[in-house]
Amino acid sequence: MPMKEGDIIYLDYEGWIKESNELFDTTIEKVAKDNDKYQEEGSYQPIPVILGTNSLIKGLEEDVMKAEVGKKGEVEIPPAEAYGDRDAKLVEIHSLNEIRRLPEFKDGETWPDVGMDIQLKGKTGRIAMITASRVRVDFNHPLAGKTLLYKYKVTEKISKKEDKAKAVLKADFGTDEGFEIKLKEKKADITLPDVCKYDQRWMLAKFKVVGDLREHLGLEVINFIESYEEKKEEAKEEKKASDKKDENGKSEKKDAGKEEKAKDEPKKEDTGKEEKAKDEPKKEDAGKEEKAKDEPKKEDNGKEEKKTEKDEKEDKKKTSTKKKSNSAKKEEK
After folding, report:
1. Residue 310 is part of which domain span?
2. Phi then psi for 130, rounded to 5 degrees?
3. pLDDT higher than 70, residue 251
4. 49 in Cβ contact with 56 (< 8 Å)
5. Whole-angstrom Cα distance, residue 190 to residue 179?
6. pLDDT, tens only, 57-70
């Protein structure tokens, strides 16, 4: 049964340049390796295609529309039905300094080279030639002017609605990995994977996804759901970190307490010593003062006692002299 516009299929293919018999693209890993075109980061599996949306070049899509699932096909496509003829006006000359100021080369480590794709004035071009001060940039498609030969096979024609939704995600965003899709009549609830929260490609692709889901699945309501759940492992790690922090805090407080205690003990000891030192001079000074007070008193008392004895002797002497004088007077009489 032939295909029709709007059908969603999976397609395997090999793309060859007829003139040089050179492989330029394929979805088959073995073919890529056999022709030295294998790329580690490449995805080698049938691609989803929505027929009638110009996702394939004109000559290939027209032939695929006539194909049957599981049967191999082959078609030769002239430039007019592939990437067009070469246009000399799309080859431009720019100064080397201008090219070196492009974002691709600002790091100072990457240098312009022949065959390198660059973005210039909003267009994608390929460096065709470099001279001492000039760079020739070709804005033609690399396959422009080439006759192409495609060998292909339609591996699957999708009929289930949920599988169609997954194929739309693959076709428009490049992957359906991590998406959870729930369909109910003309409504779709699609839970997004974490990658969509920060991948700028999704911001651009989601509008095309919405358009294709509405047009090819007949959906009217499409909900994209972002879920933020705490993972158990992360929660455990956070708890461990928190517990460790608490333990460290307690340890620090304990150590701080010890340090404070250690600081206080010398202070108390020093304070005791200071108080003792203060008291001892006071006692000593007080003793000296008391002694100093007592000594003058004793000295004064001694002097007073000596003085009294002398006075008594003088009084006795005076009394004796007086008696003798009185006796002499009586005799004269």
Report:
1. 230-317
2. -130, 130
3. no
4. yes
5. 7
6. 999 999 999 999 99
